[in-house]
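HEXXH motif domain-containing protein structure dump, as promised
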Amino acid sequence: MRLRPHRIPDDVLDSLAAGGGGARAAEQLVAVRHSRNLMLIKGVLDHCREHAEIVKRAHDLLSGLGRQAPDAAGKLIGYPAVGAWARHTLRGLRAGTAGPLEPVRLGAVAAAAAIRAGLPYRIDVPAPGGEIMLPSLGRITVGPDPGEPVRLRVTGDGAVEVAGRRIPVGRAAGPGWTPLHAITVADGTVELIVDDLDPYRWAAETVIDGRLTPADLRTWQDRLDAAWRTLKGTHRTTAAELRAMVWVLTPIKESTGGGTSATARDLAGTVAVSTPPDGRWLAVALARGLQHAKLDTVLDVVRLTLPDDRRYYAPWRGDPRPLPDLLHGAYAHLGVAGFWRRQRKVDDDLYPHVQFARWREAALEATGTLLDSGRLTPEGTRFVGAMRRTLTNWITDPVPAPALDEAERLTRAHRAAWLALHSHEAAAGAADRGPGRSARP
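structure tokens r here:
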């Protein structure tokens, strides 16, 4: 596998900072993500001591597949749970805390790539608890935990042979085989894997218990169809980025406040969501998750902040936030404000106007705090400056008076609640660095 550093062109970086990007930027970011995961996998190989020969064979197989079937190999190398496994395992190997079979999961990655390519191979894979997880495909059950790697033969015709059994590994469930679900939008242009199996898919404490039921899947299908119609019809740039950059939906538990969505840097390409209440909610969740994924990938290449132990007021959170998190939130809400700016042109209710007014102000305030912090790199100052120019331009967009009044009421209520909880920190100057620069130019 060829390892090479990536650089994001300045014009692409400027476009991303301003709130745009599109297909070209998405392609650049996917290439960065691919290179990052290759380096993590190589790190696992270099640091592995137990089962080193097995891991090397898996690495060689994946490298060969990269030449023979680059699409299949690329799909696995870029799969979010594979990146999360590689980062977690490399950390564990460096710290001496990795389990002896964790690096062997590379064999399951290679096997999944071979299955996707339709090529026959033999490879050793781990089977903790008597189960073999094939990333992006599903789970094989082999029986009691063998406690050591097992030999898996990919037949090249849609099946595997393991523990003396032949097991078809297609979309349908069968004896010994539990597939991951996939949802394809109505026009057939986007397919997202619903990963409710892989142990590296998300933090264990927040994923749902068990799997989605058939009724749940129908609900998710309906909501995704509606979300995609919204994105494709009114948010074409976001839709193009989503098609390239987001591959996985991971079901998580709903928070006490209602629908929940989240992203994680180790799982770029995944948006974790609770059952979506409607298509518009899911469209916003995907747009926000996409913003986080874009910035996470930028940060793999470009350093935007300097070390800073202070905490800052974030107009969307109830707790003081470190500077990198404030940057992430500001960038996400730049995207959310942009979503509602476009959406209010097609929806009849006041809600989109309220959301646009509220989040353009919040994101603009946060950019002022970031610029005033003195803890941005030159590249960070340029990036946040471009964000701020976009938001400053949006401030002049007219908003119906009732919606503007409601947005301002929500903003005041959030600040008052925050100060009631953190006034001692604000008085000490340790947390409340807001409101920063004026939200109105």
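Residues 427-441 have pLDDT under 50 and may be disordered.
lmk if u need the other ones
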